[in-house]
Specification:
Layout: E1 5-9, E2 12-18, E3 32-36, E4 58-65, E5 68-70, E6 75-77, E7 81-83, E8 90-100, E9 103-112, E10 115-130, E11 133-144, E12 150-153, E13 167-171, E14 180-183, H1 189-192, E15 199-203, E16 207-213, H2 216-219, E17 223-226, E18 232-236, E19 244-245, E20 250-261, H3 266-278
Length: 279
């Protein structure tokens, strides 16, 4: 495995970015952030967990790009269910346009076989918010270089209700009890999953993650939330329909994540989100 890039915030190391992980093809190898930690050193990501060994920290993954799996694991086939297919893609790190201690600009290719379907421009930065919280700002721009129209799907759009994962995704660590889930106007996993909300939060034993859509287009994407089965949150690109990107067109999303020590209440979470998105 190549040496990862270190991300620092206020002089403290808060994340490592793995560029070229040595993974089996059915894991859909891709760059990802792990471990990500609070300013107090509490880890808040997980990689290769037993329950979903293709979950890789925090990053971008899509289970269906024109039939190719850039998420890892089995592919959900309508009328058939989860199926092992030889259809996995790879996100290849092509280089940095800028790399500083608190962030970077990266170029990637999304490759299926030897064909480049998408070229991605990814921006990642770390910003301090206060003595116990910082913000991870991740923007990805996917440009269709395939020469033909591409659509993005999920198990939900392929026939499995509720399984609308794909896009930005953060796998949190498994603890003895599921994390609490809440939003600005909702409480609990069932209420928050599928909601189009400015932000959602996971609160674990001694940490809180608050995820916010930082553009109008991102805020229109519903949230994918898991807590009881496993702790994870994503901003869903294909919740109930398949978005289409024309040849040469682009899809852009930006998610800002507040990473905090301790268990935040709703008002504090909201205040930190406002600060993070406007900083």
């Amino acid at each position: 495995m190549n040496a990862p890039t270190v991300l620092r915030c206020g002089g403290r190391m808060v994340a490592r970015y793995v560029l070229r992980p040595e993974l089996a093809p059915d894991h859909s190898p891709r760059p990802y952030l792990h471990p990500v930690s609070t300013l107090g050193g509490v880890p808040v990501t997980e990689e290769l967990p037993e329950d979903h060994p293709h979950h890789l920290g925090a990053g971008v993954a899509v289970p269906d790009v024109a039939g190719f799996n850039f998420w890892g694991g089995r592919t959900f086939v309508r009328g058939q269910g989860p199926t092992a297919l030889d259809n996995h893609g790879v996100q290849r790190h092509e280089g940095f346009k800028l790399r500083d201690p608190d962030g970077f600009l990266e170029e990637l290719n999304w490759v299926a076989g030897e064909r480049v379907l998408l070229r991605e421009h990814r921006t990642v930065s770390a910003t301090p918010l206060d003595d116990t919280a910082w913000a991870l700002d991740l923007t990805f721009s996917l440009t269709n270089t395939s020469g033909e129209e591409l659509s993005f799907g999920s198990p939900a759009t392929n026939g499995r209700p509720g399984a609308a994962y794909g896009g930005f995704f953060w796998r949190a660590p498994l603890e003895s009890a599921p994390p609490d889930v809440f939003g600005a106007d909702a409480e609990g996993e069932r209420a928050v999953h599928g909601a189009r909300a400015d932000w959602v939060a996971l609160a674990g034993r001694n940490w809180t993650l608050v995820f916010a859509g930082a553009t109008e287009e991102t805020r229109r994407d519903p949230w994918f939330v898991r807590a009881a089965e496993y702790p994870g949150v994503g901003s869903s690109l294909a919740f109930d329909e398949r978005p289409v990107v024309t040849a040469g067109g682009s899809l852009v999303r930006r998610v800002v994540t507040v990473v905090a020590d301790g268990r935040l209440d709703r008002d504090t979470a909201a205040a930190l989100v406002r600060k993070a998105v406007t900083t």
